[in-house]
Amino acid sequence: MIDNWIDLENECMKCTKCELCKTRTNVVFGVGNKNAEVFFIGEGPGENEDLQGEPFVGRGGKLLDKMLFSVDLSREKNIYIANIVKCRPPKNRDPKPEEQLACTDWLRNQFAIIKPKIVVCLGRIAAAKIIKPDIKITKEHGIFFEKGGVQMMAMLHPAAVLRDPRKKPEAFRDFQILREKIKEICNYTYSDDE
Ligand code: URA
User: Please, how many CA atoms are within 13 Å of residue 130, restricted to the half-sphere of its CB?
Assistant: First the structure.
């Protein structure tokens, strides 16, 4: 375990633990506030993320930023965002189990340094890896599970919401549920709190 963020990031940038290192443009380590109480976890970088070296910067990322904004959260301010795998799977295929396994230590180390109170998994792949392998995302998104003293919730992946905009109300509702949990357990005050 590396206890210093800079060293961790530098080591991760050089990673060759799996095949994905051969086809990546950039390692997508993560972005946000390292003191955040809320940690968002996606699946893996897509094309835009690979080119820019930052998670969720494509159309899905714009929608994610909008939903975050609706509950006073932002990657610049009070959350951290990373992915299960730090390098883009070719043609945006699902990351293979062995790639996820090879990459887990980076995420575990990020988690150990940030020590978030809440983890939000974006989409089934992240939720299955982090919350429980058999999670049914359509039924179980928006529900908090407690694991090792951390509150964990799955949300619909922003790309899935873009593919089916009828899911937008459900997706925004999950952010309201998150907001209530933040009010309950985090040291973060909303301006409309009485
Ligand atoms: N989808 C993800 O799961 N992560 C990203 O960073 C971008 C798209």
Answer: 35
Residue 140: CB atoms within 10 Å: 16
On whether the CB atoms of residues 111 and 72 are closer than 8 A, the answer is no
CB 185, CB 117: distance < 8 Å: yes
Ligand 1 centroid to Cα of residue 177, in Å, is: 22
In this structure, the strands spanning 31-32 and 79-83 are antiparallel
161 exposure class (CB count in 10 Å sphere: 0-12, 13-18, 19+): buried
Q: Which of 49, 120, 130 to mutate to test the pocket of ligand 1 (most atoms within 8 A of CB)?
A: 49
What is the residue-averaged pLDDT of the chain?
A: 96
Confidence bin at 193 (pLDDT 50/70/90): low
Q: Would you say the pTM of this structure is higher than 0.90?
A: yes
Write the residue with the smallest CA distance to atom 6 of ligand 1.
55
CA of 44 relative to ligand 1 center, distance in Å: 5
Q: pLDDT, tens digit, for every residue of 110-127? A: 999 999 999 999 999 999
